[in-house]
C-alpha cells in the first residue's frame, strides 16, 4: 500500500492568508484544492511538500457570478450547473475520471493538472529501478532519450476547451493580480508546463458569454468510465448564419500543452461546414499531431484518430447548428 508522507496541513479562509502562508513556508509548501492529483503524486514521491495549504475554505474561490467561475468549484457541481449543463465545459467536466473523484476534484485542479507519462506515473521503487526520469530525480527522458526536454503529456480534459473558447484566467500572487488568456497558462514542456508561478493562485476562470458561438469536446480513452485522455479534441466555431466566421481546434493528450492548431481553424473560416471543409480541417489538425509513446494505445493509431475525432467534433457542431 502506498502511504502519504508526513506533512503539515493549513486551512486559510482568505486569499491573503493563503499567500502569506505560502510565503512563510517557501518552496516547501504547495497549494491544494481537491487533492485528486497532488495526494497520489505525494504517495509516489513525485511531489514532496512539507506543508500543504488547502484552498477549499476560501469563499471567493467557490463563487459563481455570471460567466465567472471560481476554481474551487468541484467538477460534479460544474457539470450540473444549469448555466453550463449543455456546454463543452460541462461535457469535459463530466468526462473526467469517476463520479467519486469528480465530487472531490476541482476546476482549477484539472486546469493545472500535472503532466503524465508511463515512465513517471509509477511508484518510487519502479522509477528507481530505471534510474528515474528527467521529470523527477533523473536526467533522461525515456520517451526520447536523446532529447534535452521532458515529453510528459498534458492530460487535462477541460484545458483544451478553455483554450478553444477563449476563456481567461485570473491569477493572484504576492506581486498582485493578473488576467491571462487560457492558452498563455501552458508551456509545451513536460516539467515546466505552467506559466503560473508556484506562489500564485489560479482564482477564477472568466468564460465568454454565449454570442453566436458553439463548442464541443470529444475524448479518446481505453475505458470510458475513468481513464485519462490519450486524445482530446475541443472545437469552437463562431457562426454567422451558415458561415463560419472564426474557428479553433485544440488537441489534448498529444503534447505537453493543449495544442491549438491554427491551420485547422483557418481551413474553416469563411466556409460553410460541409464534408469537404471538415475533411480539410481534420487533415490540417492531423499533420502537427505528434503523440508520443508514453501513454495508452499505439502512437501511430492515436495519430490517425486525430483526423477521426476532429471530423466527429466538427460534424457534431454542424448537426447542432442545423437543428
Explained architecture:
The structure is a single chain. This protein has a five-stranded antiparallel β-sheet with strand order 4-5-8-6-7, with no helix packed on it. A four-stranded antiparallel β-sheet has the order 9-10-11-12. A hairpin with a 2-residue loop joins strand 10 and strand 11. The chain has helices spanning 15-25, 38-43, 75-80, 88-94, 99-104, 107-111, 124-129, 158-165, 262-268, 275-286, 299-322; strands at residues 8-10, 29-32, 51-54, 64-65, 68-70, 168-173, 176-181, 201-206, 213-220, 231-240, 243-252, 259-260. The chain has eleven helices and twelve strands. The chain is an alpha+beta fold. The termini are far apart.
Largest sheet: 5 strands, antiparallel
**How many distinct domains?**
2
Our Rg estimate from Cα atoms comes to 20 Å
SS class: alpha+beta
The total beta strand count reads: 12
Strand content: 15-25%
Give the integer mean of the pLDDT values: 96
CATH class of the largest domain: Alpha Beta
Shape: globular
In DSSP terms (H or I, runs of 4 or more residues), the helix count works out at 11
Query: What is the element string, with H for helices and E for strands?
Result: EHEHEEEHHHHHHEEEEEEEHHH
The CATH architecture category of the largest domain equals 2-Layer Sandwich
Helix content: 25-40%
What topology does this entry show?
Elements: E1 8-10, H1 15-25, E2 29-32, H2 38-43, E3 51-54, E4 64-65, E5 68-70, H3 75-80, H4 88-94, H5 99-104, H6 107-111, H7 124-129, H8 158-165, E6 168-173, E7 176-181, E8 201-206, E9 213-220, E10 231-240, E11 243-252, E12 259-260, H9 262-268, H10 275-286, H11 299-322
Parallel strand pairs: 1-3, 2-3
Antiparallel strand pairs: 4-5, 5-8, 6-7, 6-8, 9-10, 10-11, 11-12
Amino acid at each position: 500500500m502506498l502511504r502519504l508522507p508526513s506533512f503539515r496541513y493549513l486551512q486559510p479562509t482568505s486569499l491573503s492568508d493563503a499567500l502569506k502562508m505560502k510565503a512563510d513556508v517557501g518552496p516547501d509548501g504547495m497549494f491544494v484544492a481537491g487533492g485528486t492529483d497532488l495526494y497520489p503524486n505525494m504517495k509516489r514521491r513525485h511531489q514532496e511538500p512539507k506543508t500543504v495549504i488547502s484552498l477549499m475554505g476560501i469563499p471567493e474561490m467557490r463563487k459563481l457570478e455570471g460567466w465567472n467561475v471560481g476554481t474551487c468549484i468541484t467538477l460534479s457541481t460544474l457539470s450540473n450547473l444549469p448555466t453550463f449543463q449543455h456546454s463543452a465545459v460541462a461535457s469535459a467536466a463530466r468526462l473526467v475520471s469517476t463520479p467519486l473523484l469528480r465530487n472531490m476534484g476541482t476546476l482549477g485542479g484539472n486546469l493545472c493538472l500535472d503532466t503524465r507519462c508511463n515512465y513517471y506515473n509509477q511508484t518510487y521503487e519502479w522509477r528507481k529501478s530505471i534510474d528515474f526520469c528527467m521529470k523527477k530525480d533523473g536526467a533522461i527522458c525515456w520517451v526520447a532519450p536523446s532529447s534535452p526536454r521532458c515529453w510528459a503529456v498534458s492530460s487535462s480534459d477541460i484545458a483544451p476547451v478553455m483554450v478553444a473558447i477563449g476563456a481567461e484566467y485570473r491569477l493572484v500572487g504576492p506581486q498582485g493580480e493578473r488576467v491571462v488568456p487560457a492558452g498563455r497558462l501552458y508551456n509545451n514542456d513536460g516539467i515546466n508546463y505552467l506559466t503560473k508561478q508556484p506562489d500564485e493562485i489560479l482564482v477564477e476562470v472568466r468564460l465568454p458569454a454565449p454570442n453566436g458561438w458553439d463548442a464541443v469536446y470529444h475524448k479518446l480513452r481505453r475505458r470510458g468510465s475513468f481513464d485519462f485522455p490519450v486524445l482530446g479534441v475541443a472545437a469552437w466555431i463562431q457562426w454567422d448564419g451558415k458561415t463560419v466566421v472564426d474557428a479553433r481546434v485544440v488537441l489534448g493528450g498529444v503534447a505537453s500543452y493543449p495544442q491549438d492548431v491554427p491551420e485547422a481553424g483557418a481551413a474553416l473560416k469563411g466556409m460553410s461546414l460541409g464534408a469537404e471543409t471538415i475533411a480539410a480541417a481534420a487533415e490540417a489538425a492531423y499533420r502537427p499531431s505528434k503523440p508520443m509513446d508514453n501513454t495508452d494505445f499505439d502512437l501511430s493509431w492515436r495519430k490517425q484518430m486525430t483526423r477521426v475525432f476532429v471530423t466527429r467534433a466538427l460534424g457534431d457542431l454542424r448537426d447542432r447548428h442545423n437543428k
